[in-house]
Amino acid sequence: MELERLSACQLGKLVNDLEVSPTDVVAYFTKRIMERNPSINAFTYTKFAEAMIEAKSLEQRLAKNEDVGPFAGVPIALKDFLPSKKGWTNSHGGVAAMIREDTEDSVFYKAARECGAIAIGKTNAPAFAFRGTTDNKLYGPTSTPFAIGYNSGGSSGGSAAAVADGLILIGEGSDGGGSIRIPSSWCGCYGFKASVGTIPSVNRPDGWSASHPYCFNGAITKTVEDSAMMLNHMQGYNPRDPFSAYRKKRDFLELMKKPVKQMRIGYTDDFGIFTIDEEVKQIVRQAALSFQELGCVVEPVDFKFHYSQNDYAELWCKSICFDTATDMELWKKDGFDIVKDHRNELPEEFIYWNDVMLKSSIVDLRKINEMRTEILDVQEDVFETYDIILSPVTICPPVKNTNDGNTKGPKEVNGKQIEQLIGFCETFFENFTGNPAASIPAGLTKEGLPVGLQIIGRKFMDEDVLAASYAYEQIHPWSYDIPLARKITK
Concatenated DSSP letters for 131-177? Predict the structure, then answer.
């Protein structure tokens, strides 16, 4: 049986029905990771022995007819960025000087463990998750399984590549500018980012640190159903999260099946400001129009933004560094000057933007908030008419990896200069506003590179995004044959 071709829900059912054992599952995926990971570089480290111990424990519970959860024995991976499993380590995205023991479990891991899943290792990410590609000085670049040597997208690129190549069935993602959606797009996966307040995020010592822009924990999966199941277990209210919304828990497995007929959908190629690769535009436009087959009203929509693509990309760079620059200054008081003592481990772009923020004034911070407010208002103007907004996830297909640990997005598209950290992504607006959004596979370029369609919903209407995604999946189920059947390169 080719377990890698199953969804997490499908494999979990087989394990619960005792048709396959958790130890056999772990052994199967251990072998697969050892054979295939070297060519895509998805994992930074693995914990096979620990996973096998958990699998044996799970078997004992199953033998006692215990309810072990819908993802019983399903292999998952955690993102090697922030703490995600007590006793493991994180590198903050491939920064050797930042390697620390995990002091807590992430919301993703708690939910996956509750469902019976087994963590098998950690996956690659860029330094401080500060870009839409996955590469770093410690571990190097991650490739999309669709084309070795082309980047997986970031910052959760290791997780997306591992899911796409059938090394695991669910990967942890975090999303502060598109870091779940971008790699899902470039790896042909499904990536869902919830509304602000849906999944609790408790940060200390600054409880508001994940709000500029909003940062989210989430899952990268093969199917919409798997994401809905994870969201069922990740959702919740936590009063220690200042943005956590107190509301009754929703069953997203049922809500994803709600009818989408007569939904009003606004489609945009570029939000009125992005320049976009023509082939990507045509693939995503065709995917968007397919919602007409589902009885939806699909219309082009205009956005009235006042700044440029690069202006907003630089706004994101500044906003992210509001926290990192502060952290690094506070670390100096404890004798840890990462830029002075470990500069060679960091991307120069990261150092530059943190320096910009350190030199910023209170007036500069006000300007950041005003631009963010404009994004909110312009988008809400559109949502007065439409239930869903569709757009490309990125303006280009996956880029080639470089050999310097610093792969970035394209320098230019259609002859226009592009900010290379996030400027090639149409995702980060939703991190400024907090709206739910997802990436679903829209198709492949002539070269066989994946392209993603972004689905954006009204704030707190996570079920609309899942329903639109699920309906699209029913008429256009995406195939994993290409990455799963790829030849292994040494």
Answer: SSS---TTT---B-TTSTTBB--SSSHHHHHHHHTTS-SEEEEEESS
